[in-house]
Amino acid sequence: MANTRPVLALSGAVLLGLTACGDFDFDMRNASNGFSTADAARQASADRPRADARGVISYPDYQVVVARGGDTVQTVAQRLGQNPVELARYNALTPDTALRAGEVLALPSKVATGGDIAVTTLAENAINRAEGGVSTPAPAAGSDGPQPTRHRVERGETAFQIARLYNVSPRALADWNGLNPEMEVREGQVLMIPVAAQLDRAAPEPVTQPGSGTPTPPPPSASTPMPEPAPPADMAAQAAEEARPPSPDLAQERTETPAATSFAMPVDGRIIRAYAPGRNDGIGIAASAGTSVRAAQAGSVAAVTKTTTGVNILVLSHANNLLTVYANIDTLAVEKGARVSRGQSIAKVAAGDPSFLHFEVRNGQESVDPMKYLN
To answer: Model confidence over 232-284: pLDDT tens digits?
Structure first.
């Protein structure tokens, strides 16, 4: 894998243009053909599907991962629970190869997807909001469209030749695979071939033969009865109100929070960030760096991951469809799938200014005020 990086955008554009001229076949070898317009006729490509919280895009038969800034093959493998040597070999790289943000790697084996990923994405977005960042909707981990063809680069092949082989634009091929501005590919690299965009085409207007005239719509018929006039607005509203069933008395159906869902404070400290739905889906509890973080209730480790800004997240699953989320932590003492008991040490508070624990309680995927559960 080449490590060349463009110093100036202009130099990158010049190199791109020179490379293009060297690889494109303008089909001018036969004077009778003239200048070819084949490149302009290449099919329009759809956008690459968005990745999930870990950067994974899933298809029925394979998965790929989109690298983040600062990633190496080793860190990507650790994030996904893959063997770094196997992941590197499958992509013709080495475990310590530095990756560009947006670079795509093919996965030699599938990683898990499902509910824990959705929970992690929700928790990450909540923490981004608490830190003043911008959250995004949970992206789809794959596509409802056709599965892209894969192409393993052979010796001597270029991105332009591969694009021409599959009748796609080089730019689309680069966007789908995170190629660098020089469009460099390496022997053994696995490329996704962009799929065609689904273009909306309106039904063609009926064509009449010359001299046959233009069809005219049928005139209104006196035999067809006119529609009944609509009732006045006030009468319609009154009828709807009378048909509406009585509202239930929710106060009589309210139940108290069961004792089994009362949680212990994960750290001892004062609340410095209050629960504010939509802005902060948890609370911030002040604590010194290195303070032990305790499991608020018995349960199992549903997810262990990081946000895009490098903040550790740990999610515990409890009875009654409840989840607890712990962030701004390090020195994690548990792994995904492990059982934990109430009060068990699961991590340490990370250093910060100030240092604090971000703590959430979720009923399913909906955040709730943690103070209603803490005792």
So the answer is: 655 655 666 666 666 555 444 444 444 446 899 999 999 999 998 878 889 99
Burial letters 195-218, b for 16+ CB under 10 A, else e: beeeeeeeeeeeeeeeeeeeeeee
CA proximity to 286, closest of 203, 194, 354: 354
Query: How far is it, in rounded angstroms, from Cα 147 to Cα 83?
Result: 25
Fold classified for 261-372: Glucose Permease (Domain IIA) (2.70.70)
Residues of the chain with CATH 2.70.70.10: 261-372
**CA–CA separation, 246 and 138 (whole Å):** 37
Highest mean pLDDT among 237-251, 304-318, 334-348: 334-348
Q: Which helix (H) or strand (E) holds 305?
A: strand 299-306
Partnered with residue 150 across adjacent β-strands are: 192
Q: Rounded to whole angstroms, what are the CA distances from 358 to 54, 80, 274?
A: 20, 24, 10
DSSP 280: B
Q: How far is CA 184 from CA 45, 112, 157, in A?
A: 20, 31, 10
What does the angle CA 96 – CA 56 – CA 172 come to, to the nearest 5 degrees?
Answer: 90
**56: three-class secondary structure by DSSP:** strand
